[in-house]
Amino acid sequence: MLIAVACTDEKPFDTTDPTLPVRLNPGEQAVTLTLGGMGKAATAKSEAGILSRADNKIIETEAVVNTLDIYCFVNLAQDGNDATAKADYTLERMYKYAPGGNGNDFTLVPDADGYRAAIGVPKDDTRRRTFLLKANQIAAGSVTYTAVPVSGADRTSATTYAAALNETSATLPGNTNLACPLLMSARVTRTVITGAGEYIDDPVFTQEDLAKGISARMIRRVARIDISNPVTTGFTVTGIKAAGNPSVPLFIDDFSGYMQQDYPEITLSNAAAIPAAIYLYPVSGDSDNAEITLSGTYAGNPVTLGITTKILPNTRYTIAVRNDGSNLHLNITVAPWNDGGTIDTPDIAGTLNSEHHLATTSTLY
Predict the structure, then answer these.
(1) Sign of the torsion angle spanned by Cα atoms 55, 342, 358, 319
(2) Taking the C-alpha atoms of 3, 7, 12 and 15 in order, what is their torsion angle to the nearest 10 degrees?
(3) What DSSP line would sit under 231-281, residue for residue?
(4) How far apart (Å, rounded) are the C-alpha atoms in residues 208 and 203?
């Protein structure tokens, strides 16, 4: 198994656990971190953490974590007093990883359906902490992060947890399509039982909780659009384009109210199944829809087929070309990204994202 360790003279890697080297500050202990949610049958392939997949639905590059930022918030408010709510926690430390990067705070090791790592936290500090993760962010978002250690006398500049939760990605340039590696994020939580006997996801960790390790399920903040076009339709696909959101919130799931923009057309080679024809930021809301258009030919004539739909992150949508003998049209099905075997996975729109409704009207232009 390959483990990439950056060379630096600042702080040596602690190798108490040789499989998870971590850079520790004085007075810190290592906390293990498990990242899941990216697929099945992960195996080490390169320093960049590219994973191989046993199924034919997860494309290798869709599981790549090229960069990873971890944000640790502590229960101290900006005025230096104990925070009375999670929203008032302030940023204590940022951990950075990039393949081969100097000054990496940790390494990533491919494992199961994701990765393992370790980070350093204060060893004898009883304060509570909470964590946010971002992967593959290629441009700064709407929040500028400032970390202040617990020992810092002035915390007024420290980023609050509430501010971080409201971060939005940078706006996608108008002449650009989304591409791998894909933007991902996660809130680190643990499962607890309430006094009423209910299981909930709690994002707050005590020192004792951290000693057991932490885990997070990475969520791709994009949707993947596949195309199914059986040869019996007689339609030849030549391209796809879309209009949708130019940015996306990283940690909350409100995808409404964004100014939509056109994604440039992508030229495609015709096939019965075209996985990952385009990636889109999520679109949902009472009056918000993504507009997806296929271009091609039918009976030698240029044809454009269009469909509108609401889409959610970390979800795979298949646009199917249909020909009932008198009408060439599109419909759309939805499936989880990491489950099922092929592009023809049955539609589970009624069970996946139960509050999500598809607008499946199509138009022949």
Answers:
(1) positive
(2) 10
(3) GGG-EEEEEEEEEE-S--BSSS----SPPPEEEEEEE----SEEEEEEEE-
(4) 14
Return the closest-CA partner of residue 61 out of 221, 181, 223. Answer: 181
**Which residue's entry shows tokens 């090791």?**
109
Indicate left, alpha or beta for 347 from its phi (over 0: left) and psi (-120 to 50: alpha). Answer: beta
Predicted local confidence at residue 330, as pLDDT: 94
Lowest mean pLDDT segment, chosen from 16-20, 98-102, 310-314, 353-357: 353-357
Other beta carbons less than 10 A from residue 54's beta carbon? 10
Q: How far is the C-alpha of 203 from the C-alpha of 187, rounded, in Å? A: 7
Instruction: Return the CA Rg of the chain.
Output: 23
The three-state secondary structure class of 25 is coil
Model-level pTM?
0.84
Helix, strand or coil for residue 29?
Answer: strand
- Name every residue whose Cβ is closer than 8 Å to that of residue 183 and which is 6 or more positions away in sequence: 134, 135, 136, 137, 138, 169, 220, 221, 222, 248, 250
Residue owning tokens 């199961």: 112
